[in-house]
Amino acid sequence: MTAASTPNLPDLPLTNLGNAEFTATREAFSGQNAVIDFWTTRCTNCPSALDELNDLASDERYEGVKFASICCDSCDGAREIIEKDDAPRWDRITHFFMDSEHKEEAKRILGFGRVPFYVVLNEDGDIVQMGSKKNIDFDNLPGMVQPTMGDDIAEEKKDDDDGAFKIFDLDF
């Protein structure tokens, strides 16, 4: 995806479902690496996509990434689904609502016709990835802590049965 072909995140009004405060997309994600999942309450694939995002958000490698959802069809329906059990569902994701008029504008600008639809932003607010799940590289998100060589060696040592530090087995 080239910068010339990538649209900017449209600045559209949102309602934060956690505190009922009004905000806008650029304000909500300003200065943060973010993964935004556009979804609807009638989508059969959306709950499992949100389950996966919530799991990613609990992984320490993603501590520099904000995970958010934007429900685009029913504010009350979204609240009902999110708050269904005693504990809020998808508790590591910040949830927003966008009305249908602005959903249509987002669809037109971002070019999506199906949900779930993801938009990945870097901390400058630039869209760096967008599309369906198959279009997003979740192992390479802005703000994600990448394993270092030291981490790989430490894992090898931890997995070694006899406790000895081995990188290579040399059989002559």
From TrEMBL:
Gene3D superfamilies according to UniProt: Glutaredoxin (3.40.30.10)
Pfam family, one: Redoxin
Coiled-coil zones: none
Lineage top rank: taxon: Eukaryota
Entry-linked InterPro entries: Redoxin, Thioredoxin-like_sf, Thioredoxin_domain, Thioredoxin_ResA/DsbE_sf
Domain Thioredoxin: 3-150
PANTHER family according to UniProt: PROTEIN DIPZ (PTHR42852:SF13), THIOL:DISULFIDE INTERCHANGE PROTEIN DSBE (PTHR42852)
Family, as annotated: Belongs to the peroxiredoxin family. Prx5 subfamily.
Name of the protein described by the UniProt record: Thioredoxin domain-containing protein
Organism listed in the record: Cyclostephanos tholiformis
